[in-house]
Fold this protein.
Amino acid sequence: MIVLFDSGPLGILTNPKGSPVTLECQNWVESLLLKGYRMILPEIADYEVRRELLRANKLAGIRRLDDCKSHLLEYLPITTPVILKAAQLWAESRQAGIPTADPKELDGDVILAAQGLLVGEGGEAVVIATTNVKHLSRFVDAREWQNIE
């Protein structure tokens, strides 16, 4: 099983305040790693979380994000095939009348969905850990992070 992190759960996981939900998320990640799941940090999710941490000057959060990126989660960069797949998904969703974002937005969800679809081409099941199932569910098997066991 492969689990890709969307920005919502990634923000929870990297929150340095140690709230109950942060601790629950950390325990959840550790339990899945022990089961042999591949836990992946897509570059688009890193971008979405990092830009807000930088804007708010939250240095502890940036350090936690960097730590997850280098020690806990496998990092998945955005590549040309990802962008090409994302463009295809974006166009198909618009043609079907089900856009996921304003036409002028970059639409990070479609980039994340493209990464999920491409990483799953090897035959492994892919789940996107998200707090926003609505936008991603039309592309891949998206569930809220607390429901994956």
Notes: The chain has a mean pLDDT of 87. The beta strands are 2-5, 38-42, 74-76, 126-130, 142-144. The first strand starts at residue 2 and ends at 5. The chain is about 55% helix and 15% strand.
